[in-house]
Automatic annotation (TrEMBL):
<dbReference type="InterPro" id="IPR011989">
    <property type="entry name" value="ARM-like"/>
</dbReference>
<dbReference type="GO" id="GO:0019888">
    <property type="term" value="F:protein phosphatase regulator activity"/>
</dbReference>
<dbReference type="InterPro" id="IPR016024">
    <property type="entry name" value="ARM-type_fold"/>
</dbReference>
<dbReference type="InterPro" id="IPR051023">
    <property type="entry name" value="PP2A_Regulatory_Subunit_A"/>
</dbReference>
<keyword id="KW-0677">Repeat</keyword>
<dbReference type="GO" id="GO:0005737">
    <property type="term" value="C:cytoplasm"/>
</dbReference>
<protein>
    <submittedName>
        <fullName>PP4R1 phosphatase</fullName>
    </submittedName>
</protein>
Length: 282
């Protein structure tokens, strides 16, 4: 009885403070569910009200974004319609910290919602985050593999054209961004065909191998070695032979000692030298 009276009080307060958000009758019906007390959900949804940020907590929208995957999991995908508008509001929030919070959890939300809802409601938000500030982009980059593996193959291939954009950052000194890109590309090798790896991932890998920061280069050496292994196991041997020849031409025969050293380091990773000898000389 005490809980009912408390929820009744919260519900009434929510109606007063968010009258502009929930006044239309149709909008109220679209947010009705039977998993948790409706008053509790209404109180949560009201956290995106700008007046709350001025009177309650300046970071209340960030707290709302942080809790959204948990709320979505509790309500289930059948009640996503209750959260969709709130999610889109948070995704377009002026504070980059709010968008960053959503970017770091969008892959978890995709698992909860499933293929169809992800393609319809999350992919547009994901595409927006890809063009956002570096503080937001790093969120989708750190879980790029986790998100792309949930998409349909055709939709996943569309992002091959955008991967190279991760090489460009607001601050060129942000080498950790490029290091994370190399780490993610290693995981992405399992999601794409040999043709896609050779055409799209190979140029990025070679660019990272020549990075100014040694930490980025070391991860890139592992990336190239995994790429050679992946192409070697593919049914078409042409790609791996061409990749080997390019490695020899770009690094082994480089007029700079740093380039020749790069070739040695790449061969050092997982005894790649054996693969090179076998592919080049049979």
């Amino acid at each position: 009885q005490s809980m009912d009276s408390t929820l009744h009080y919260i519900h009434n307060e929510s109606d007063l403070s968010t009258n502009s958000s929930f006044s239309p009758e149709e909008e109220k019906k679209s947010k009705v569910q039977d998993v948790v007390p409706q008053a509790l959900l209404d109180q949560y949804l009201s956290m995106t009200d700008p007046s709350r940020a001025q009177t309650v907590d300046t970071e209340i929208a960030k707290h709302c974004a942080y809790s959204l995957p948990g709320v979505a999991l509790t309500l289930g995908r059948q009640n996503w319609h209750c959260l969709k508008d709130t999610y889109e509001t948070l995704a377009s929030d002026m504070q980059w910290k709010v968008r960053r919070t959503l970017a770091f959890s969008i892959h978890e939300l995709a698992v909860i919602l499933g293929d169809q809802l992800t393609a319809g409601d999350l992919v547009p938000v994901f595409n927006g985050f890809l063009k956002d500030l570096d503080e937001v982009r790093i969120g989708v980059l750190k879980h790029l593999h986790d998100f792309l593996k949930l998409l349909h193959v055709d939709k996943r291939r569309e992002y091959l054209y955008q991967l190279q954009e991760f090489l460009v950052t607001d601050n060129s000194r942000n080498w950790r961004f490029r290091a994370e890109l190399a780490e993610q590309l290693i995981l992405l090798l399992d999601l794409y065909s040999a043709r896609d790896i050779y055409d799209y991932l190979r140029p990025i890998a070679f660019s990272l191998c020549a990075d100014k920061v040694s930490s980025v280069r070391w991860i890139s050496y592992k990336l190239v070695s995994e790429m050679v292994k992946k192409l070697y196991m593919a049914s078409t041997p042409t790609f791996v032979v061409d990749l080997m020849n390019e490695l020899v031409e770009k690094f082994c025969r480089c007029h700079k000692w740093s380039g020749r050293q790069t070739f040695v380091f790449i061969c050092q990773v997982k005894c790649l030298f054996i693969y090179i000898l076998f592919c080049l000389f049979g």
